[in-house]
Amino acid sequence: MPFSISKDEILETVNMLSTENLDIRTITMGINIMDCRNGDGAETGGRIYDKITRCAAQLVKVGDDIEKEYGIPIINKRISVTPVAMIGDGFGPEEMVAIGRCLDRAAQEVGVNFIGGFSALVHKGFTRGDLALIEAIPETLSGTERVCSSVNLATTKSGINMDAVYRMGEIIKDTARLSADRDGLGCAKLVIFCNAVEDNPFMAGAFHGVGEPETVLNIGISGPGVVLSAVRKHPDADLGELANIIKNTAFKITRTGEMVARIASRRLNVPFGIIDLSLAPTPAIGDSVADILESMGLEKVGAHGSTAALAMLNDAVKKGGAMASSYVGGLSGAFIPVSEDQGMINAVDDGALSLEKLEAMTCVCSVGLDMIAIPGDTPAAIISAIIADEAAIGMINRKTTAVRIIPAPGKGEGDWVEFGGLLGRAPVMKVNRFSPAGFINRRGRIPAPIHSLNN
Amino acid sequence: MVKSEESSRIIITVLGHDRVGIIAGIATILAEAGINILDISQTILQGFFTMVMVADMSGSSLDIARLRELLNEKGREMALQITVQHEDIFNFMHRI
Predict the structure, then answer these.
(1) Residues of B in contact with A69 (CB under 8 A)
(2) Whole domain around residue B82: which residue ranges?
């Protein structure tokens, strides 16, 4: 076959990889563990451990090999499992904790940095297993290193489970308290969802959905730096042109993921699920979604106009990605975490970005309020109310929303929390102190919206 | 659809200030490893050297990771930025 790629195209690709932080953010292997149920928590955990270490034995090696051979950084190798509340139904909280420990050991054994699926799906109500799992979250997240937890408590089809919203406010507080020596790190591994997706490869919200096959490979790709550089090259383009430029760039990024997905799937003999094209920032300079928004012409992210800029970015990324792969799924869009994005951190620090503006931006970003530190003395009812607002946005707009919030123990507004690594650091943000307790204490279920009745 | 996944062709790019012996230095490493050069294109703009080389690794005694190490070492020695990439990346990114 003749070689038909032009020199400019070659140099463009080389540049993306060498200076613009194009990378495969995660190769996440989903593993069904429904067949691992046994007598008690420890036995079930043991079978889960065996299955994970068998299925994912080669995961890290194959990821590392592809990275070496192709020169594309593959940052994380991860695992997601079937929501543990389902496998552990009938067990008590202690047995759930035992399963959590086994997940942690399995992750350590195969060398992945996070394992997701310590999860419950409670959007319409709790099973006994769901309640036990939720009880076990604080101890599990503070006592393990790699286990990630998520709870889906609302969907467009079923409404918002306000009993769960009420309970999760307390669970988040307890989790922060138990990991107080690490600034409430446990909460950084807990995501509260509305409309959770079953094939999301990104942590902390990944789990292996019930409609998924025995094993599956989902690939999360990223590249805020590549998009940033493309936007910066066109300071005078109008927004229609700019959307097109972002689309083209997203297309190229996604093609890289498609290639890695196919190779990894073949080598591991695990079916390829989806590519999740998400602009997932890291604390590295230039690897920032906030920087992209600012390069569009905002002085600081959080300024009026931020929501419109993000809406355009999020949509253009999806359009480019959808053309580039046979299967695009997961969350696909732009993440706007605070602690993981240096531009967002700066905007909060400068007083440009408030929690309220972030909430507005989550109406048009791919997920929700992510990695936000708030004062440690914030009452549980306020945290529940933040979750309720976010779930309402997701429910009404038929999109995934999430809350990953850290009430940093002993810290107040303006203090800093440090998590290190990909989780980064963040200033503690101001929270509206007027009480929503009367509303949250009503509990019950907010009915599904009228447009859920679409049959 | 591109069918050439895991082909044996690689693209080597070299960026830096022009000087004597850049191509010789790289070609020597490739020849010693049994790697066949298929195409070279280079430009020099105001003393800035850009080269793109297509090579075939099917007879290579080195794997691509080791070759990359050797060329990176050479790059450091000659103050050049050298990258080694599999052809598939470019095909996937720029062609459907």
Answers:
(1) 63-65, 86
(2) 9-94
**CATH number of the domain bearing residue A142:** 3.20.70.20
Residue range of the domain that includes A111: 28-194
Per residue of chain A (455 residues), give pLDDT as tens: 456 788 888 888 888 888 888 889 999 999 999 999 998 999 999 999 999 999 999 999 999 999 988 889 999 999 999 999 999 999 999 999 999 999 999 999 999 999 999 999 999 999 999 999 999 999 999 999 999 999 999 999 999 999 999 999 999 999 999 999 999 999 999 999 999 999 999 999 999 999 999 999 999 988 899 999 999 999 999 999 999 999 999 999 999 999 999 999 999 999 999 999 888 888 888 889 999 999 999 999 999 999 999 999 999 999 999 989 889 888 888 899 999 999 999 999 999 999 999 999 999 998 899 999 999 999 999 999 999 999 999 999 999 999 999 999 999 999 999 988 778 899 999 999 999 999 999 999 999 999 999 88
Same domain, A433 and A355: yes
Give the containing element (helix H, strand E) for B38.
Answer: strand B36-45
d(C-alpha B71, C-alpha A306), whole Å: 44
* d(CA B92, nearest CA chain A) in Å: 6
Asked whether the beta carbons of A300 and A353 are under 8 A apart, the reply is yes
Residues A125 and A228 in one domain: no
CB contact under 8 A, A5 and B95: yes
E strand intervals along A382-433: 401-408, 416-418, 425-427
Token digits of residue B81: 């930025």
* B5 vs A9, A10, A263: nearest CB: A263
**Same structural domain for residues A259 and A184?**
no
For residue A6, being part of any structural domain is answered with no
Q: How many domains does chain A have?
A: 2
Q: What is the ipTM of this complex?
A: 0.84
Smallest Cβ distance to B13: which of A14, A255, A263?
A: A14
A8 within domain boundaries: no
CATH number for the domain that contains residue B75 = 3.30.70.260
Same domain for A385 and A247? yes
Tell me the DSSP string of A269-291. T--EEEEEEEE---SSTT--HHH
Which residues, 6+ apart, have CB-to-CB distance to B1 below 8 Å? B96
Contact A304, A229 (CB under 8 A): no
Residue-level length of chain A:
455
Residue B62 lies in a domain: yes
Q: How many domains does chain B have?
A: 1
